[in-house]
Amino acid sequence: MAIVTDTTPSPTSPATSPVIHEGLPTQLPDIDPEETRDWIESFDAMIEGRGRDRARYLMLRLLERARQKQVGVPALRSTDYINTVPPEREPWFPGDEEAERRIRAFIRWNAAVMVSGANRKGLEVGGHIATYQSAASLYEVGFNHFFRGKDHPGGGDQVFIQGHASPGIYARAYLEGRLPEEKLYRFRQEVQHGVGAGLPSYPHPRLMPEFWEFPTVSMGLTALNAIYQARFNRYMANRGIKDTSDQRVWAFLGDGEMGEPESLGAIGLAAREELDNLTFVINCNLQQLDGPVRGNGKIIQELESIFRGAGWNVVKVIWGREWDALLAKDVDGVLVNQMNSTPDGSFQTYSRETGGYVRDNFFGVDPRLRKMVEHMTDQQIQKLPRGGHDYRKVFAAFDSATKTVGQPTVILAHTIKGWTIDALEGKNATHQMKKLTQDDLKKFRDRLYLPISDRDLDLAYEKTGTAPFFHPGEKSPEIEYMMERRKALGGSLPRRVNRSTLPKLPADKVYSELKQGSGKNKIATTMATVRLLKDWMKDEGIGQRIVPIAPDEYRTFGMDAMFPTAKVYNPGGQQYESVDRKLLLAYKESEKGQMLHEGISEAGAMASATAAGSAYTTHGEHMIPFYIFYSMFGFQRTGDSIWAMADQMARGFLIGATAGRTTLTGEGLQHADGHSPLLAATNPAVVHYDPAFAYEVSHIMKSGLDRMYAGSEEHPEGENVIFYLTVYNEPVSQPAEPDDVDVEGLLKGLHKVSTGDGDGPRVQLLASGVAYPWINEAARMLKEEWGVTADTWSVTSWNELAREAVDSEEWNLLHPAEEGRTAWVSEKLTGHDGPVIAVSDFMRAVPLQIARWVPADYRVLGADGFGFADTRPAARRFFHIDAESVVVQALQALADDGQVTREVVVKAFEKYRIDDPTAVAGRVQEGGDA
Questions:
Q1: Full-prediction pTM beyond 0.70?
Q2: Paired sense of beta strands 17-18 and 5-6, if any
Q3: Residue 630: helix, strand or coil by DSSP?
Q4: I need a surface site. Which of 87, 390, 791, 838 has the fewest CB within 10 A?
Q5: pLDDT tens column, 205-232
Q6: For residue 901, which phi and psi values (nearest 5 degrees)?
Q7: What is the CA 336 to chain-centroid distance, rounded?
């Protein structure tokens, strides 16, 4: 924003000077210059007489008063480096602080022993000690007073645990009797003692499906997913599916983690939709992996500025209660000024130094500061605590967050990494320090006042190579207190439960339209897929459970027809007249809208798909996400989020529309998807299909519903998979479903479409998706121009064919005494004469996945390289994947087998000029760009 200047001189300023901007109405005329001058002169006099600190204080009070009176002034982007909740406004603390301190000590010890033990000689599997030690008070305040469990009448909270803090959560579960001691010894040893007999390193629901609810590593995704989880809770309530008014989302994050773009990428949405059911708790221990987060700056102040600017309620927990008396003496503001001006790097140093060092370097810079602490010993100064370790201060912050209305809240808690472990506390290398010596553990024990003798420690090391875990006994006051608190709050957390009922799925007739084909018309598979979606949304059983999701591309994918009926979800409704309101397909928003329009944010759309797809466990309600997007911007851009979706065992449909490297004409390199099936193949939960025909779409989509939302003997509650379909924007003739269609083959990945008539040389032509018309035309050309007969096959899934083949080989490896299995694709192609030519609009590596199991000479054509903008014929000629290229490749394979002469191949090559894109310069195409 430009700085506005005022040329009217003030009594104490030069003739021309910049004035305050950023929202103040500096451009308005001064209607009473004399009154203005009086105010300015009074302010100047106050500065001269009482000092800048007093003037600053009064200005802050005036700004506060202005906000109370609804006078439009800009919000402060940051406040003083002190607690947001002053001592006089702290609520009464309802807990037994001594019992809770003891509980924290038990958990701290067991968490540290767990990680240190996992790094004993000969094992050394890693782990993180310091993160939980810095955040223990933050979690324990939540567990003892705020986090509502699954048995709470309101449905329970959703708590996203910071991934590196998982040892502390396991340690608490051990005290609660939820995890046996032997599992703690087997931290990060998930299979060597038996599958499921150990503990995973981080929160992974797929690995511990009754314990963890949300995956929170990779870092950065927690913030994004938590925001959209809170938003989806409101969506569920506004649509009348479930009352979520008494549920809150808590997300625990690290200050270093906030450097991930995803961490801050959606905070504007949370404020815009007034998600006061959301609380971020950012553990600001000032350290990331290898050093300070902001050595020369102040990360808490920086984050406060960002979140305040985005519209969040910010609560800072900087100092423990021992600082209150010092701040009460700070009549000149000198202590607050020192707090404000000290960089994080210095605070980190103070956490490692003696009290004398802190006295000299922090308090010694001003005589008033030194006098303020002259009554304190060096040890007392050294122990002045950070606010994130003070139970009462943290409780006050959490209490404030839960009572805030109309805004999400972020709590910025100042802590010390590795707190209470002398060997780790505040060190830059804390992230890499994973093992504690016996002497380290003895000092740690003494600091926690645990009744573990040196002899017990030494004996445990002799026996197990690590220290013993500590449990005070099920009947101890601390454990009884802990269990009572969790019972009052609705049961233990984290906990994942499935209380959903499988929905009634549509009857077969809903699929009949796609099976009839398109007659004389041509339609793209994207349109066929959307048409089926519309019919699903009309279904009584699942219609209201469909969650359409798109990142600002509904019209691109032909879904604008849904606007008038399904409407776009907006918690504020539509408070304006749409510019296209007179049109039949006008844009409509509604508080009860069904369509999630995420704007230009594929990351946000994926987070919504994850929240919707896991609603069966978070809310006991099956929802069916249908996320449609440019295929290039799915697995390439948000692949990490799709991994998290799979880890969370979410279900649903991902539709990679405008797929293919040559199909989306005009858009160019960054939009041309030639590889998403390969990326999809790396995710074990993703089932990818690349259908060529509308009737294939109908069978695949039905299969997806059946597998995910209908029970089977193997999966009585439905299968935790994600269906990914690549569909196209190119209109093609859609044949009616043949009477003898091989549905089993279609769903396994390969079915025969046509059998060529005639004797002589024969080839097998395989294609997926939009490439099928190329081999259909190639079969005609081969027959009519070269006397070669071709059978054509539609490959609906290269990925599934390859997976089944790999599974067969794995079974053979593990069952050497039994008769070996044959890959299904091998059996399917066996007995069909001639070389096999495969082609797709993806790179060669996609169809090459099955090369090992094709029982014939196997040749592959694909669109390798970067995409570009041109017509489809030109692009396909350039990549050598069009019908003519298929013909030449087929003839070349036959020539290599001695069935035709080399001269035939040369003649075809020269006739079709497959190496020359200018040969198709005049060829027309149907269907425009996306």
A1: yes
A2: antiparallel
A3: strand
A4: 87
A5: 999 999 999 999 999 999 999 999 999 9
A6: -85, 160
A7: 38
